[in-house]
């Protein structure tokens, strides 16, 4: 129950933070902020390429002489 309350409070706080950030940003230089950018409980999507045994050789070829 305490975690649900914390998530709800962060949802509210992150919405206000996104609003303030969007009001003060330069639309020509940056993208619009979303509340999930400020919410520590928001689900994050994984970025990049997952490191596996098959593609580790590619990194060795590039970074190791």
List low-pLDDT spans. Answer: none
First CA to last CA: what distance? Answer: 55 Å
Mass-distribution shape? flat
Percent helix, as a range, is 40-55%
Q: From the alpha-carbon coordinates, what is the Rg to the nearest angstrom?
A: 19 Å
Count of individual helical segments: 2
Secondary-structure class = mainly alpha
Instruction: List SSEs in N-to-C order.
Output: HH
Walk me through what this model shows.
The protein is built from two helices and no strands. The chain is flat, with a radius of gyration of 19 Å. It has a domain at 1-45. The protein has 65 residues and is mostly helical.
Lay out the secondary structure.
Blueprint: H1 2-23, H2 56-63
Q: Briefly, what is this?
A:
This protein is mainly α and 65 residues long.
List keywords for this structure.
65 residues
